[in-house]
Each structure stands twice: as structure tokens, then as C-alpha cells.
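Fold this: Tripartite tricarboxylate transporter TctA
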Amino acid sequence: MDTFASLLHGFAIALTPYNLMWASVGVIMGTAIGVLPGIGPALTVALLLPVTFQLDPTSAFIMFAGIYYGAVYGGSTTAILLNTPGESASIVTALDGHAMARTGRAGAALATAAIGSFVAGTIGTLALTFVAPFMVKVALRFGPAEYFALMVLALVTVTAVLGSSLIRGLISLMAGLMLGLVGIDIQTGQTRFTFGVPELLDGIDIVVVAVGLFAVGETIYVATRARYETEELYKIRGSLWMTPVEWARSWKPWLRGAFIGFPLGALPAGGSEIPTFLSYLTEKRLAKNPEEFGKGAIEGVAGPEAANNASAAGVLAPMLALGLPTSATAAVMLAALQQYGLQPGPQLFQNNPELVWGMIASLYIGNVMLLVLNLPLVGIWVKLLSIPRPWLYAGILVFASLGTYTLNNNVVDLVILWVIGLAGFGMRVYEIPVAPCIVALILGPMAEQHFRRALMIAQGDPSVFFTHPLSAAILAIAALLLFVPMVLRLRQRQKMAVA
């Protein structure tokens, strides 16, 4: 009953005219961002962090949640009509969605993507409503040793899963941990790595790093890789509705996608790419006509789009309940929490229930808004593709610089922004994932605090991390996730060498 009462209280907050306005701003902006290739929700939230500093935290997070869900919705539009996914999770949608558009069935592809997103988003939000409080009850039993182990697990999984190699992931992780060490040591009061710069005594602002890595680095990378010639855009012919046969072929993939997406999204480093690929493979195996896949099978659009939206809700569960980001967007949203001086994790539910439940309630409202907006206004979203790319990217860079400067009104932040932005560009060129860096910057200082507290309680005995059963189990899982892929790669190389 507590969950229902909290959710009703959340609806009372989210349905106020002021918060409804920010929810609508979020979903409209998110859909537009999802449609534009190369600009994802992480970049957008990072870009808006400095601008929303004066905004009420609850309203800001209602808008961020709308942007996140909206970008997940909007990414399918360009994937289907242009064969250019708006964000990485829509890559699978492009396989059959664009094939449907080429044969004049773009309307049905857009409809099954929109309705599937609504169904799975609602199921995922329902799961979030009941899973997050359960996670909080478990987390409240954690001590410093267990929290340290949990953060090590998050750091290891993000590093091991993302990127093309473990070494590149570790490079990104170490860079984030080093940035997190800058400033004054909380326990000793000693300065660390400030190099005599007074502005660095409080540490490097997470917002500056997030904007630098995602807004500046990503934009420069996309701009240098973009093709500015006109691409072929397939027009929508006929009705934007589905035939009874298409409805019959879509509803099961919607449900399967939802139940695949949410739990995988909630796992550390689960994200949305893995559930969409898994959903596509599942639908292909269960299909009566698997030869249609890749040529315009509607199940190949319905399942992955449902998994994509359900995983978005799954990502929010550990972020809100445990303070653990499982995707780049969640990491940037955690940075936003710290910008407002809020402590992510179980204390957030106790100290700021209005923010948590207002945000969860706004997801239900945002889902309805997105369903109403997506199909009737698809023509307007497509027109966004006519914006000249140089104007778009230049505008993002100017906006990022102005927003960062307004944080503390000093030039040091601007210098840090562009140094980190250029470093982020280099990381993308050499295929070094940026997510481990921002996750390490957020979790590194927190892990250090819990590590020191655990040692103080145990009077300096390091065995405390292995004598507590839960802490030992979590560290064992982290070790397996780190070393098992390395062993498998070595075996594969040995087999190739023998062959």
C-alpha cells in the first residue's frame, strides 16, 4: 500500500500545470533529439545541466525523464525512414523498419514502433514502480563494505562490457578515477592534484566533465564523420495505421520485448543495445517465416522497439534506488542529482520522495504524451532532418560553452570543458568508451569514502571486505566478470593459432 500511496502522491506532483509543462517540454525535445542522427539523450541532458541549475529539482528531473523517453521513441523515425538510427539502440530497428519503408509500409512500421514503445514503456514503468522500492529495502541493509563492493561491481561491469576491448575500458576508467581525486581530501583536508589552481580546490565539476565528454567531444566527432550530402528519405505512403494481420503479428513481440528489456536494462552495463539485439534474435527464432527478417518483418520492428523502451525504465531502477548508473544517460542524470546536492541511492527515497515519485509518475504521463505526439506529428519530426548539420553542431558547441561558463562564471571551467571535450573526441577516434570515465568520476569518490569507512570500522583490517558474506559475493561476481572474458579470449586465440 505504501507504494500505491507514494505513486498517487507522485501523480499529484506531476499533474500540476507547472510540472506538466516541463514534462511536455521534455518529451517534445527528446523526440526531436531522437530524430536527429548523432544526438542522443546523454548529450542533451548533459547540455541542459548548466541551464537547469536554477530550476526546481523535481521539475528538472521530470523534464530529463521526458527527454530520455522521448529520445528512445524518436530514434526509430530516422531508422525507419532514412536507415540512419537516431541513437544506438535503434540500429536493430533499421534492419527491418527501413526495408518496410522501401516497400511502401513505412506507416505500419512507425505505428508498430510507437504503439510497442507505449506498451513496453508502460510495462517497464510499472515494473520500476514496484522494483525500485524493493531495491531500496535491500540497500538499506548494506554497510560501507557492501556499498564499496557494489560500486566496484558497477565500475567493473561498465568497463568490461562497453567498448571494443578491456584495455580501452580500463584506460577510460582510470581517467575518470584520476579526475575524481582532484580537490580537497574530505577526511584529511589535504589538497590533491590542484597544481596551485584555487578553482580546483572543490574538485572538477561533474557537470563540466559530462558536457565536455558528451556535448563537445561527441559533437566534434559526429561533425568530422558526417556526410553532408542529401540522403534518400522514404516518404510515408498510405495510412499510418496497421492492418488486423499486422496487429496480430505485433502484440506478442511487444510483450516479449518488454519482459526482455526491463531486467537487462536494470543490470550494470545492461543499457539498451543488448536487449534490442536479444529481442530481434528471439523474434527471428520464434517466427513462422524467419526468411522475412531483414526484408521487412514487422516483428523485427515491434520486438526491439519494445525492448528499447522497457530497458529505459530498467536503467532508472538502479540509478534511483542504488545510485548506480547502468548507461551513459543514467550517469549524466546522476551528475544532475549531485549538481542539486542530492545523494543518489536509498536515502533519495527517504529524503526526497517528491522528486522520486513525481518523476516516476511523470513517466506514465510522458508515455501517453509520446503516443499522442509521435504518429500525428511524424511529418514535423522528419522536417528536422533538413536543418543544415554545420549549423546544428556549431549551435551545440556555443550553447555548451555558454552554459558551462554560467555555472561558476570563471574561465577555468571553460578551459577544462574544452580540454576534456578534445580528450573525449580523441577517445572516440581510438574507440575508447566514454561511459566508464563519467561513471568512475561519479562513483570513484563515493567508493573511496565507503572503503575508508569500512577500514575505520574494522580498525584497519582489510579482510572486512571478504568476511561479510554479501560483500564477498559481490566482489566475487566482479572478479568473474573481469577475468572470465579474458580467459575466453585467450582460449579463442589459442584455438585460432592451432587452426
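The mean pLDDT is 81. The first strand starts at residue 183 and ends at 184.
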